[in-house]
């Protein structure tokens, strides 16, 4: 075995151990007001599928009236009915394309008009495959709109109400890609890194206001993310099963973490270890190469 490979395995083992201990010793406190008697509301972008739909389910189960935002209104209507049937909770629908200025303005106006918005989940997102030079420039611009401008503008719209009421939480869905610099994923890595920097800096600015900010950094999740035409050559089976997280577990880890003080939240021991590796000088590039082989 070559030395760098041994070193990498040693660091992985150490990082997994450290992450597991870290995981065990942290106390969990519930953040969400639970029924009966809760009157808070929430807004989830990208609620028509995957992780966003799971956030909406868990927030509704916790007594939140959720505004479900995405482009596909029929999907949102089906989820609205499900939340009513399963949890007896009313919800609202906001059809908006958050990759456009008009869509972002529409969502921001909706947020400003909510008088008890307690949790904002900026979740909508997508990925592309291939080197920047070969990908559609319009798709890359849409990604910057969705991952950067929408996250910033909707947070800004939510803050006056949350700070005036002395509490609330903004969850910005990022990715472990925020810590990687992986060729073939340039704009995704860059926009998710923006989300982390934005969330950490905003959290610092909001100290003492009662408003929490989280950058949720999952690894692979079983959702529709990899089912688009852009991912036709992506083979899920090439990545080991233990790398695939369940959307319900990721949403639960995020909401549970609102009871603590972490801004960067990485669900799952394997991905906590991966992030520790990616942040280790000299190891990050090797980890990037290993991760690229799994794509
Ligand atoms: N799945 C993974 O492996 C993974 C890993 C790390 C991070 N993430 C992040 O997790 C978040 C949720 O993704 P997912 O895995 O749940 O994917 P998904 O199942 O494909 O869901 C994506 C959601 O985003 C919405 N969306 C996409 N473009 C939009 C637009 N222009 N305007 C408004 N909404 C839009 C989609 O709704 P409409 O199409 O109806 O608009 C959909 O509800 C994303 O930010 C993603 O980057 C995913």
Description:
- This protein is α/β, with parallel strands linked by helices and 295 residues long.
- Helix content is 48%, strand content 14%.
- The chain has nine helices and nine strands.
- The protein has helices at residues 3-25, 50-61, 73-87, 101-112, 137-165, 186-205, 247-257, 269-278, 284-293; strands spanning 41-45, 65-70, 91-95, 117-122, 168-173, 211-216, 221-222, 245-246, 264-265.
- The strands form two sheets. It has a seven-stranded parallel beta sheet with strand order 3-2-1-4-5-6-9, with helices on both faces.
- Helix 6 (186-205) links the parallel strand 5 (168-173) and strand 6.
- The radius of gyration is 19 Å and the shape is globular.
- The chain starts with a helix and ends with a helix.
- Residues 1-30 have low confidence and may be disordered.
- It binds NADP nicotinamide-adenine-dinucleotide phosphate.
Tally of domains: 1
Low-confidence stretches: 1-30
Q: Structural class, please?
A: alpha/beta
CATH class: Alpha Beta
Distance between the termini: 24 Å
Q: What is the radius of gyration computed over CA atoms, rounded to a whole number of angstroms?
A: 19 Å
């Amino acid at each position: 075995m070559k030395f760098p490979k041994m070193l990498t395995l040693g660091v992985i083992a150490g990082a997994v151990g450290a992450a597991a201990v870290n995981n065990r010793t942290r106390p969990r406190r519930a953040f969400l007001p639970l029924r009966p008697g809760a009157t808070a509301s929430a807004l989830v972008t990208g609620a028509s599928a995957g992780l966003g739909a799971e956030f909406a389910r868990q927030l509704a189960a916790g007594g939140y009236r959720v505004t479900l935002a995405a482009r596909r209104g029929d999907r949102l209507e089906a989820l609205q009915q499900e939340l009513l049937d399963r949890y007896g909770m009313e919800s609202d629908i906001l059809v908006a394309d958050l990759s456009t200025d008009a869509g972002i303005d529409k969502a921001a106006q909706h947020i400003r008009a909510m008088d008890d918005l307690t949790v904002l989940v900026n979740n909508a997102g997508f990925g592309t495959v291939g080197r920047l030079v070969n990908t559609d420039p319009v798709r890359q611009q849409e990604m910057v709109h969705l991952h950067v401008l929408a996250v910033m503008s909707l947070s800004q719209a939510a803050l006056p109400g949350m700070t005036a009421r002395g509490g609330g939480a903004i969850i910005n869905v990022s990715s472990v890609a925020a810590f990687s610099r992986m060729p073939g994923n340039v704009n995704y890595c860059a926009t998710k890194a923006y989300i982390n920097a934005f969330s950490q800096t905003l959290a610092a600015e909001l100290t003492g206001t009662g408003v929490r900010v989280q950058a949720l950094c999952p690894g692979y999740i079983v959702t529709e993310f990899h089912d688009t035409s852009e991912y036709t050559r992506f083979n899920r089976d090439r990545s080991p099963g233990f790398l695939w997280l369940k959307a319900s577990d990721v949403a639960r880890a995020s909401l549970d973490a609102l009871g603590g003080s972490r801004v960067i939240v990485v669900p799952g021991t394997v991905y906590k270890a991966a992030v520790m590796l990616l942040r280790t000088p000299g190891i990050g590039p090797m980890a990037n190469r290993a991760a690229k082989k799994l794509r």
